[in-house]
From TrEMBL:
SUPFAM superfamilies: Concanavalin A-like lectins/glucanases
Organism placement in taxonomy: Bacteria, Pseudomonadati, Pseudomonadota, Gammaproteobacteria, Thiotrichales
UniProt entry keywords in alphabetical sequence: Signal
The species this protein was found in: Candidatus Thiomargarita nelsonii
Name of the protein in question: Secreted protein
Gene3D superfamilies listed in its UniProt record: 2.60.120.200
């Protein structure tokens, strides 16, 4: 089983794309293994069927205030689990996501990683 775990107080948003990276101007869908826009669920919308099962994380608004379009992980045993698959056993990959990290000074901390 491949598990995605997050123990930080974060909002995880939009997309996690695993792809072979062949250049700075590559087509982002070329080699895409999984895509999670979190449109009310953790379904893989790449067409490859790597749907996630949510444990503990709750749907919240994303950075554009779209309803139920991001997941909040409270830092205690929350994760999204994806079943193992040969297509997920890659040695080189890229993961991209928008993450919100609460700050103590009130600044917005949406970050693209
Ligand atoms: Ca929890």
């Amino acid at each position: 089983m491949v598990k995605l775990r997050c123990y930080l107080r974060t909002l995880l948003l939009i997309a996690i794309g695993l792809s072979w990276f062949s250049g700075a101007m590559a087509d982002l869908s070329d080699g895409l293994v999984a895509y999670y826009p979190f449109n009310g669920n953790a379904q893989d919308e790449s067409g490859n069927g790597h749907h996630g099962t949510v444990y503990g994380a709750i749907l919240v608004n994303d950075r554009f205030e779209n309803i139920d379009s991001a997941y909040h992980f409270d830092g205690i045993n929350d994760f999204i689990q994806i079943s193992d698959s040969p297509s997920l056993r890659v040695t080189t990959f890229t993961i991209s996501a928008w993450i919100y990290q609460p700050s103590y000074d009130g600044t917005v901390r949406w970050r693209w990683i």
